[in-house]
């Protein structure tokens, strides 16, 4: 079991992150509840993930499919929890992953989009997905190039998936100004695609522990927060 002292620290961390996200939203002229916090639980075991939910986090993000399905099979929550797949996804992991009914942020190719649609249809599901865009054009990162997304939206699978928006990360080692530029470009891209495709695309998953204020100022509706939630609890090297 999680010790009471650790649970208290985790609750304090969660409240502090909530406050910072709310302040960033308000400072950007937005409602404080306009940004969802995805608690990235990839850093911790199932027991600590359960403690995070007890602290108040109801949206959990994992970067590895195996960890998500292990945790969903092992854990029972007192409150509804939504899972978010935020890491690279291989086609051979899709069928089992869908048992967790996650929102998938990291759709980075038409092949994985088609695989999700096929397995979702076979399971009688409609899966909400985000298209991952490589807005920084970093060769080491996955994601669609911005100029390819209009064609993707024009040829979506007929059933099984519902595209809700875009996901992006700032380039590695970028300054806060550069991160803000990348996030602004993602929002502008979303707006153009929404207009050209006629799809609402309401969600923008942008920003992590080190740059979420910049992402919120640029229009993020979801921020993926991990390391600062677990300060004082784990050794992250």
List keywords for this structure.
single chain, 237 residues, alpha/beta, TIM Barrel, 8-stranded parallel beta sheet, 8 helices, 8 strands, globular
Can you walk me through this structure?
- The chain is an alpha/beta fold and 237 residues long.
- 41% of the residues lie in helices and 17% in strands.
- It has one domain: Alanine racemase (TIM Barrel).
- It has an eight-stranded parallel beta sheet with strand order 7-6-5-4-3-2-1-8.
- Helix 5 (110-122) links the parallel strand 4 (103-107) and strand 5 (127-132).
- The longest helix is centred in the first third of the chain and has 24 residues, at 4-27.
Short description:
This protein has 237 residues and is α/β, with parallel strands linked by helices. It is built from 8 helices and 8 strands.
Specify the overall morphology. Answer: globular
Query: What do we call the CATH topology?
Result: TIM Barrel
Major β-sheet strand ordering: 7-6-5-4-3-2-1-8
The name of the CATH architecture is Alpha-Beta Barrel
Number of helices: 8
CATH C-level class is Alpha Beta
How many extended strands?
8
Gyration radius from CA atoms, angstroms: 17 Å
Class from helix and strand fractions: alpha/beta
Low-pLDDT residue spans = none
In this structure, how is the largest beta sheet organized?
Answer: 8 strands, parallel
Q: Level of helix content?
A: 40-55%
Give the overall pLDDT as a whole number: 93
CATH superfamily: Alanine racemase
């Amino acid at each position: 079991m999680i010790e009471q002292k650790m649970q208290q620290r985790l609750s304090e961390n969660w409240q502090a992150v909530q406050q910072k996200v709310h302040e960033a939203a308000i400072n950007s002229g937005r409602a404080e509840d306009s940004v969802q916090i995805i608690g990235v639980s990839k850093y911790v075991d199932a027991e600590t993930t359960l403690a995070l939910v007890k602290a108040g986090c109801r949206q959990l993000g994992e970067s590895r499919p195996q960890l998500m399905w292990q945790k969903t099979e092992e854990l029972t929550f007192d409150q509804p929890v939504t899972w978010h797949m935020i890491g690279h996804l291989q086609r051979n992991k899709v069928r089992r992953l869908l048992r967790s009914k996650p929102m998938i942020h990291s759709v980075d190719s038409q092949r994985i989009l088609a695989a999700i649609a096929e397995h979702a249809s076979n399971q009688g599901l409609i899966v909400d997905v985000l298209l991952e865009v490589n807005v920084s054009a970093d060769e080491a990162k996955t994601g669609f190039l911005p100029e390819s997304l209009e064609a993707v939206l024009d040829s979506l699978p007929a059933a099984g998936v519902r595209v809700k928006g875009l996901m992006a990360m700032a380039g590695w080692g970028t300054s806060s100004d550069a991160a803000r530029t990348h996030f602004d470009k993602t929002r502008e891209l979303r707006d153009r695609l929404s207009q050209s495709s006629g799809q609402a695309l309401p969600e923008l998953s942008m920003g992590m522990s080190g740059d979420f204020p910049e992402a919120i100022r640029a229009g993020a509706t979801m921020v993926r927060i991990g390391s600062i939630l677990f300060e004082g609890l784990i050794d992250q090297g």
